[in-house]
Design brief:
Order of helices and strands: HEEEHHEEHHHHHEHEEHHEEHHHHHHE
Strand content: 15-25%
Helix content: 40-55%
CATH architecture of the largest domain: 2-Layer Sandwich
CATH superfamily of the largest domain: Metalloenzyme, LuxS/M16 peptidase-like
Number of domains: 2
CATH class of the largest domain: Alpha Beta
Number of strands: 11
Strand order of the largest sheet: 1-2-6-3-5-4
Oligomer: single chain
Distance between the termini: 62 Å
Radius of gyration: 24 Å
């Protein structure tokens, strides 16, 4: 049913016609009232969940289809497979030739791309609201009708290999990052790079890609997030007539990862390269997963410690003349993520001196805690960031989608702002001590090398 209808829709799109869209989405852009920001959700009979993030200020929508599978689900020896299939999803299906998806998006004034992470793979497009039915038909088609052939597979494998050469192999910082993650997450899939190891990518085959597609891609393992000028009542008939026509697979694999093992010792890794002009020292710790009870306190703490020019690291090191840059962050993932502080020492300041000064700032922060002014400012900055996120449909859809695919309930996501506002001085002191002062870590040192 889907395949036959898509062929008609594609022919219409080629002629520039949109009158054949299955369901017309009506309504006009309106000013956004406070209550209209509330997410809506529904679940189709095949297990696919949809989340709608209303934004009626312009007649556009951002549609993001998330699959709960990422590079961390790969088996040994097949690294890069999740990312490889992401590329192949833009090739031919049983109803469309390779490249047609991209051409239809462009012809209808849209923008599209895809992303693979350790935790998920997503496919997104942004189009005018009246083009949404067409695009959902195309997206549903490639969920069930991807047609892989050796010519396309081998050509795209070369593209992925070149991507690795450009993004990782020619980037000293990326090379060192891979070494850090290998140490920090030893024994866990996060230790393997998302883009894959070159020698393993070179061996990926059409059969590998087809097995991955049939093992993980199906409606019950997908999450639809749509942000923009649409309501759940308008989206549901569209979803039912496209994704809802795809039967539940019933045999898709269920994610099973080993636990992240705490470090039993600290490590120091050094990488030297002539392309580097400025030395950098970074200390990395294992953090917390999304939705963890300490997540918001850590975010507030790292905003105070390393968030821009008001951060303690910046004020203590850059303004003090010991560094040209200093910052820190906490990045939560489905499994425990990463916490890091990074410093680029000023000329004449050694890595050892910068390291010692940064460690002292962190220890003092854990012992003294934030001032009332620091705590208030950090919360205000984070509250403003949440408001700005609403002004960007892609950022809003990503924020919800990343957490939802990681298993964080919608109700928990909705109270994140309240939880940030409730963080106390004692909460900040506690997380700094638990996650930054006491635990083992991985230090990464990037140094200039001889030409």
């Amino acid at each position: 049913m889907i395949r036959a209808f898509v062929s008609v829709i594609v022919q219409a799109a080629r002629r520039g016609a949109v009158a054949l869209c299955l369901v017309a989405v009506t309504g006009t852009a309106a000013g956004q009232e406070a209550g209209e920001w509330k997410p809506e959700t529904f679940t189709l009979s095949n297990g696919m969940t949809a989340v709608i993030l209303p934004d009626h200020r312009a007649p556009v929508v951002t549609h993001v289809l998330w699959y709960r599978v990422g590079s961390a689900d790969e088996v040994a020896g097949k690294s890069g497979l999740a990312h490889f299939l992401e590329h192949l999803m833009f090739k031919s299906t049983k109803t469309m030739p390779a490249g047609e998806y991209n051409r239809v998006v462009a012809r209808n004034g849209g923008q599209m791309n895809a992303r693979t992470s350790y935790d998920y793979t997503n496919y997104f497009f942004r189009v005018a609201r009246d083009r949404l039915p067409l695009m959902m038909q195309l997206e549903a088609d490639r969920m069930v009708a991807l047609a892989l052939n050796d010519r396309e597979v081998f050509a795209e494998r070369s593209v992925v290999q070149e991507e690795r050469r450009q993004v990782v192999d020619s980037n000293p910082g990326a090379i060192l990052d891979e070494q850090v993650w290998d140490k920090l997450f030893a024994g866990h899939p996060y230790a393997v790079p998302v883009i894959g190891r070159m020698e393993e990518v070179a061996r990926l085959s059409r059969g590998d890609a087809a097995d991955w597609y049939h093992t993980w891609y199906g409606p019950e393992n997908a999450l639809l997030v749509v942000a923009g000028d649409i309501t759940a009542g308008e989206l549901r008939p569209l979803a039912e007539s496209t994704y809802g026509q795809i039967p539940r697979r019933g045999d898709l694999k269920v994610r099973a990862w080993p636990a992240v093992t705490p470090l039993t010792q600290s490590f120091e890794l050094t990488h030297t390269d002539p392309k580097i002009r400025q030395a950098t020292w970074t200390r990395n710790w294992i953090g917390v997963p999304m939705g963890h009870e300490d997540a918001e306190a850590l975010q507030v703490a790292m905003q105070i410690l390393g968030g821009g020019r008001t951060g303690r690291l910046y004020r203590g090191m850059v303004e003090g003349g010991q560094a040209v840059a200093a910052y820190g962050y906490s990045s939560e993932m489905e499994a425990p993520g990463i916490i890091a502080v990074s410093v680029q020492p000023s000329r004449g300041v050694s890595i050892a001196d910068a390291q010692s000064r940064a460690a002292a700032i962190i220890a003092d922060f854990g012992r003294e805690g934030p001032t009332a002014e620091e705590l208030s400012r950090a919360k205000s900055i984070m509250a403003a960031s949440a408001v700005f996120r609403r002004d960007n449909q892609q950022r809003l859809a990503d924020w919800y989608g990343i957490m939802l695919t990681a298993g964080v309930p919608l109700e928990r996501i909705e109270v994140s702002g309240d939880r940030i506002a409730a963080v106390t001085r004692e909460d900040v002191m506690g997380v700094i001590t638990r996650y930054l002062v006491r635990p083992q870590h991985v230090d990464a040192i990037l140094l200039p090398g001889d030409e």
